[in-house]
Design goal:
mainly alpha, 81% helix, disordered N terminus, transmembrane, membrane, DUF2269 family protein
C-alpha cells in the first residue's frame, strides 16, 4: 500500500459516526456559549438611558437575532449528547437497536420546531400554543433530567452500566439546570416588552427606565449560571472523571 493510500485509509477509518457526533457536540457548545455572550453584550446597550430609543431598538433586534444560536444549540445538544453516548461504551446497553436513538432525534427536532415558532413570536393561536408547549417541555426536562442525573451519580451501576458514568450524571444535571435557568430568564424578561414598547412610543421616563433596567438586571444571575454550567458540562465531557471506560 502506498503512503498516500495508507493516509486515505487512516483518514476514512477515523471519520465515522462517533467523529461526527463529537464534532456536532463541540460546535453546539461553542455556538451556545458564544451566542449567549453576544446576547448579553447587546443587552448592555439596551439599559443605557443616555442612548436614544432608535439605537436601543437596533440593539434589541441584534439581541433577538443573536439569540437564535443558543436557542438552537440548547435544544440540539440533548439528541447530540445521546448520539455521542450511543457511539461510546454506554451504547452497548442502551442502543442495541437504533430505534431509540432515532426517536430521540425525532423528539429533539419536534422540540426545536416548537421553540423556533415561539422564537418568531406573534399573537396567533399557534404562537401561544408553541410558547406554552415549549415551556412545558423545558420544565419537564429540568425535573426529569435532574432526577436521571442524580440517580446516575448515587447508584453504583446505574442502568446496568459498570463503567462509573457519574461524570455523565453530573453533566446531565448541569444541562438540566441550564434549561431551568433559561426559563427563569424568560420570567424575568416579562416586564421588558411592555416597558420597551412605552420607551419607543412615549419616550424615556424614570419609571420606564426602572422597569427596563430591573428586568435586565434580574436576568444576569441566571445568565452567569448558564455560562458556568455550560463550562462545567464541557469540562466533565472532556475529563470524564472516575470513568473506567476507554
Amino acid at each position: 500500500m502506498t503512503p498516500l493510500v495508507a493516509q486515505a485509509a487512516e483518514a476514512a477509518h477515523g471519520f465515522n459516526g462517533q467523529t461526527v457526533a463529537i464534532f456536532l457536540h463541540v460546535v453546539l457548545f461553542a455556538y451556545w456559549l458564544g451566542g449567549d455572550v453576544g446576547v448579553f453584550y447587546a443587552s448592555r446597550y439596551i439599559i443605557k438611558s443616555e442612548v436614544g430609543p432608535e439605537a436601543r431598538g437596533v440593539a434589541t433586534k441584534i439581541m433577538h437575532a443573536t439569540d437564535i444560536a443558543p436557542r438552537v444549540s440548547l435544544v440540539l445538544i440533548l439528541p447530540s449528547g445521546v448520539t455521542l453516548m450511543a457511539w461510546g461504551p454506554l451504547g452497548d446497553e442502551f442502543f442495541v437497536h437504533g430505534w431509540l436513538l432515532a426517536l430521540t432525534w425525532v423528539a429533539g427536532l419536534a422540540w426545536l420546531a416548537v421553540s423556533l415558532i415561539d422564537y418568531r413570536g406573534g399573537d396567533t393561536p399557534l404562537a401561544r400554543l408553541s410558547q406554552k408547549t415549549d415551556l412545558t417541555v423545558r420544565y419537564a426536562l429540568s425535573v426529569g433530567l435532574v432526577a436521571v442525573g442524580v440517580y446516575t451519580m448515587i447508584v453504583s451501576e446505574p442502568f446496568g452500566v459498570d463503567t462509573n458514568p457519574k461524570w455523565l450524571g453530573a453533566k446531565v444535571v448541569a444541562y438540566a439546570l441550564c434549561i431551568f435557568s433559561g426559563v427563569m430568564i424568560r420570567r424575568q424578561l416579562k416586564p421588558f416588552g411592555p416597558a420597551f414598547g412605552k420607551l419607543v412610543t412615549s419616550g424615556s421616563t424614570p419609571e420606564v427606565e426602572k422597569q427596563i433596567l430591573g428586568s435586565i438586571r434580574r436576568c444576569e444571575p441566571w445568565v452567569y449560571a448558564i455560562w458556568a454550567l455550560v463550562l462545567v458540562a464541557a469540562l466533565l465531557g472532556v475529563m470524564k472523571p472516575g470513568s473506567t471506560a476507554f
